[in-house]
Amino acid sequence: RAEPRVLAHPPPQAFVTAFGENGIHLELTVWIADPENGVMDLRSQLHYAIWREFRERGITMPLPQRVISFPDGAAPSLDLRRSVG
After folding, report:
1. What is the pLDDT of residues 58-79, one digit of tens each?
2. 29 and 10 in contact (C-beta within 8 Å)?
3. CA-based Rg of the chain, rounded to a whole angstrom?
4. Which of 1, 30, 49, 80 fits a disulfide with 12 by CB distance 3.0 to 4.6 angstroms?
5. Sign of CA dihedral 41, 7, 13, 57
6. pTM of the predicted protein model
7. How far is CA 10 from CA 3, 37, 52, 53, in A?
8. Residue 71: phi, psi to the nearest 5?
């Protein structure tokens, strides 16, 4: 609501759209008075504002974590000095 291009009526709405592998999928819907001026800059500004609010409230974004297991328990050795190809 702090963004001047976002209309007060109808009010902004936030939805939880899905539970993903690494977090929750959220969708924000807003109405603007001047769509002819484009939406990418507004979308970016809203994303940054949400990110700042999350940070200020201690909400963090999970990072994907992957575990690689080897059948015998030992990882293969890699020689990164060799050229590939």
Report:
1. 998 777 777 777 777 666 676 6
2. no
3. 22
4. 30
5. positive
6. 0.65
7. 14, 20, 24, 22
8. -55, -40
